[in-house]
Design goal:
about 35% helix; 9 strands; about 220 residues; alpha/beta; binds S-adenosylmethionine; 7 helices; Rossmann fold; two-stranded antiparallel sheet
C-alpha cells in the first residue's frame, strides 16, 4: 500500500474508532456543545426557508436527506417538521439504531437509513429536494469532498439544493481527537467551485459562543 493510501485509510479508520465510543446524545453529537443545538436549528431553519416553496422559493418539501446524521438531531428538529419524509446516511450503525428513540413518533417518516461513509455514498438520482450536510464534511479528504458534492448534485430533484453547514477556521486545522479537518472559508469555497456547484447564498450562524469557530451555511445547486 502506498504511503498516501495508508494515511487515507488511517484518517478514515481513526474517525470510525472515535465515533464508535461516543454516547447517543446531543452532547455526544456536538462534542460537548449540546447547548448550542437550539440556536443551530433556528439558524438553519431561517436560512433554509426562503428557498422552499412554503417560503416563496422554488425548492420542494417532499424529501430530504441528512448526511452524517448521527442520531438524527437535525432530522428531528429541522427536516421532519418540514419534509414529508427524510433519509439518513451515517457512518456509525449504533447512531442509526438509536434514531428511533431519539426522534420518537415522527420516526415513522424516516424512510431509509444508510450506514455508509459519505466518501462511498451515492444519493439516488433526482431524489432529494434538500441534501443537508452538517458537521461532517471535515471527515472527508479534499478529493472526496469534491466528488461527494458532485454525486449530491445528481441526487437533487428539480430546484433541489444542497446545504453545507460547518465550522470554518482562519487556517486549516487537523483535529486528531476525531480525525477531521477544519477548513478555511476560502478553501471550502475553492472545493465548492471545483465541484462545479453554484453558490446560491452563504451566511454565518449567529448566536454561538465565542469559543466556537465561525459556522457558515452554504446553499448550493
Ligand atoms: C459532529 S457529528 C454531527 C452529527 C449531525 N450532523 C449533527 O449535526 O447533529 C459527526 C457525525 O458524522 C459521522 N461521520 C463521521 N465520519 C463520517 C463519514 N466519513 N461519513 C458519514 N458520516 C460520518 C459521525 O459518526 C457523527 O455521527
Amino acid at each position: 500500500m502506498a504511503e498516501e493510501e495508508r494515511d487515507e485509510k488511517k484518517f478514515y479508520d481513526d474517525a470510525k474508532k472515535y465515533w464508535k465510543d461516543i454516547p447517543l446524545t446531543i452532547n455526544g453529537m456536538l462534542g460537548g456543545f449540546g447547548q448550542i443545538s437550539v440556536t443551530d436549528i433556528n439558524g438553519s431553519r431561517a436560512f433554509l426557508r426562503p428557498f422552499l416553496t412554503i417560503g416563496g422559493g422554488s425548492t420542494g418539501t417532499k424529501k430530504a436527506i441528512d448526511c452524517g446524521s448521527g442520531i438524527g438531531r437535525i432530522t428531528k428538529r429541522l427536516l421532519l417538521p418540514t419534509f414529508d419524509s427524510v433519509d439518513m446516511v451515517e457512518l456509525t450503525q449504533d447512531f442509526l439504531d438509536g434514531a428511533e428513540q431519539h426522534i420518537g413518533e415522527d420516526f415513522k417518516r424516516v424512510d431509509k437509513q444508510f450506514c455508509c461513509g459519505l466518501q462511498d455514498f451515492t444519493p439516488e438520482k433526482g431524489k432529494y429536494d434538500v441534501i443537508w450536510i452538517q458537521w461532517v464534511i471535515g471527515h472527508l479528504t479534499d478529493d472526496h469532498f469534491v466528488q461527494f458534492l458532485q454525486r449530491c448534485r445528481d441526487g437533487l430533484s428539480e430546484n433541489g439544493i444542497i446545504v453545507l453547514k460547518d465550522n470554518c477556521s482562519p487556517e486549516k486545522v487537523f483535529d486528531d481527537t476525531d480525525s477531521s479537518y477544519m477548513r478555511t472559508r476560502e478553501h471550502t469555497l475553492e472545493l465548492i467551485v471545483k465541484s462545479g456547484l453554484k453558490l446560491l447564498n452563504s451566511q454565518k450562524q449567529k448566536g454561538f459562543p465565542k469559543a466556537i469557530y465561525d459556522v457558515i451555511m452554504f446553499a448550493l445547486q
